[in-house]
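Retry 2 of 3 after timeout on previous attempt. Resubmitting structure tokens to design endpoint.
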């Protein structure tokens, strides 16, 4: 088994969603930091995967094609997919619907911010997003640019990750079951991302993990920069109890987007991931 242990980071974002670096730049950065494997897990899109995989082949880094999907049951219940096929029709269709949802959400979010005295235009947020679907960090950067807040983090604390935001702006997300199904139908394995962000703990989290396992969940992200040692130990316990592979990653978005998060170099068993990768 030890032959399958790799220095890896299995949770990374690029300019295909809300990250700072292009897929090729990020792969080269991961290689330069000494990683042997890296999973690209952009929000709701596979658009960056081919570029990342080509860059990985060139520089000798194992790139695992991934995705991160947001589910509706809790404000930040995210499901990671590993080993997905970037062109799988099921996943492309899922991503197309998510992109339309993001467009509608942007309109609701602009109106929500205006009610609170923050006046942004869609075009200035879209300019920051470039070709990517608009995500909340793009809004945060627009608010910093206009001087409404001084950091991205402040934008989230005051506007973009509040109870009012979640009640009024976030609507109609897919169920965790449908996220897992889309990942599995495109050849991937599903993992529960940053369990602490669900906001539930103990027995409630145990029940959620049991339900996700019944839907086909394969892994759980135990190692994550924001997890306390106690949380990490509990998630490792859940991994063992439900026979889930323990994974980990940094959720690196680049220092401009998340200044406090660096690439991780975790020793992980990757033998359970599809062989062809
Ligand atoms: P979205 O998928 O557009 O809803 O945006 C989700 C992204 O927003 C996450 O991946 C994080 O990058 C960022 N995010 C969510 N909540 C927070 C928070 N409280 N502080 C900083 N960034 C956050
Ligand atoms: Zn993000
Ligand atoms: Fe996430
Ligand atoms: Fe993420």
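Retry 2 succeeded. Sequence:
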């Amino acid at each position: 088994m030890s032959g399958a242990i790799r220095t890896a980071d299995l949770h990374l974002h690029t300019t295909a969603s809300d990250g700072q670096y292009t897929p090729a730049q990020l792969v080269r950065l991961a290689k330069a930091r000494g990683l042997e494997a890296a999973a690209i897990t952009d929000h709701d899109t596979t658009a960056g995967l081919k570029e990342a995989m080509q860059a990985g082949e060139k520089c000798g880094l194992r790139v695992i094609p991934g995705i991160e999907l947001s589910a509706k049951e809790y404000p930040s219940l995210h499901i990671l997919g590993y080993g997905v096929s970037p062109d799988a029709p099921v996943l492309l269709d899922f991503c197309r619907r998510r992109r339309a949802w993001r467009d509608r959400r942007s309109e609701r979010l602009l109106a929500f911010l205006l009610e609170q005295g923050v006046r942004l235009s869609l075009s200035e947020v879209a300019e920051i997003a470039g070709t990517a679907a608009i995500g909340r960090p793009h809004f945060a950067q627009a608010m910093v640019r206009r001087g409404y807040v001084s950091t991205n983090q402040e934008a989230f604390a005051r506007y973009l990750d509040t109870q009012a935001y979640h009640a009024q702006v976030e609507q109609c997300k897919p169920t965790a079951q449908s996220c897992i199904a889309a990942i599995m139908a495109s050849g991937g394995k599903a993992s529960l991302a940053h369990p602490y962000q669900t906001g539930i703990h103990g027995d409630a989290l145990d029940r959620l993990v049991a339900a996700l396992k019944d839907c086909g969940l394969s892994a759980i992200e135990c190692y994550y920069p924001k997890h306390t040692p106690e949380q990490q130990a509990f998630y490792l316990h859940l991994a063992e109890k439900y026979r889930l592979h323990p994974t980990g990653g940094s959720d690196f978005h680049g220092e401009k987007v998340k200044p406090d998060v660096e690439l991780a170099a975790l020793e992980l068993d990757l033998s359970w991931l599809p062989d062809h990768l």
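Attempt log closed. The mean pLDDT is 96.
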